Amino acid sequence: MKSEFLNLLKEKIVIFDGAMGTYLQALNLSIDDWGGANFENCSENLLYTRPDAIEQVHTSFLEVGCDVIETNSFGGSEVVLSEFGIVEKTYDVNFRAAALAKRVASDFSTPAKLRFVAGSIGPGTKLPTLGHIGYVDLKNAYVEQVRGLMDGGSDLLIVETCQDLLQTKAALSAIFDYFKKNKVRVPVIAQVTIETFGTMLNGTEIAAALTALDPFPIDVIGMNCGTGPKQMAESLKYLCESSTLPVSVLPNAGLPEVKDGKQHYDETPESFAAQVEHFAKDYGANIVGGCCGTSPEHLKMVVERLEGISPKVRDPKRTPAASSIYFQQPYSQDASFLIVGERVNASGSKKMRDLLEAENWDGLVNLAKSQEKEGAHILDVNVDFVGRDGVADMNELVSRLVTNVKIPIMLDSTEWEKMEAGLQHAGGKCLLNSTNYEDGEPRFLKVLELAKEYGAGIVVGLIDEAGMARTFDDKVRIALRAYQQATEFGIEAHDIFFDPLALPISTGIEEDRRNADQTIAAIKEIHAQMPDANIILGVSNISFGLNPASRIVLNSIFLHECVEAGMNSAIVNASKILPLNRFSEQEIEVALDLIYDRRKFDGDICIYDPLTEFTTLFEGKTATSMKPDIANLPIEDRLKHHIIDGEKIGLEDSLKVALETYPPLEIINTILLDGMKTVGDLFGSGQMQLPFVLQSAEAMKSAVKFLEPFMEKADSTNKGTLVLATVKGDVHDIGKNLVDIILTNNGYKVVNLGIKQPIDSILESLAATKADAVGMSGLLVKSTLVMRDNLEIMNERGINIPVILGGAALNRRYVDNDLIPLYKGDLFYARDAFDGLHTMDKLTQGEQSKVQSPKSKVAAVGNGSEPGTVATGLLSEPPASAGGLTDHIETVTDAEDLVGEDAKLGKAAARVSTRTTGDSTHTTQSDVSTDIAIPTAPFYGSKVVEITDLNKVFSFINETALFKGQWQYKQGKRSKEEYDAILQETVYPKFAEIKAQAIREKLLEAKLVYGYFPCQSSGNYLIIFQDDEKTERMRFTFPRQPLDQRGGKNLCLADYFASFDSGRIDVVAFDLVTMGRKASEHSAKLFKSDNYTDYLLFHGLSVEAAEALAEMWHKRIRTELGFADKDAVELAKLFHQGYQGSRYSFGYPACPRLEDQEKLFELLQPERIGVELTEEFQLDPEQSTSAIIVHHPDAKYFNIE
Question: Whole-prediction pTM value?
Answer without folding.
Answer: 0.59
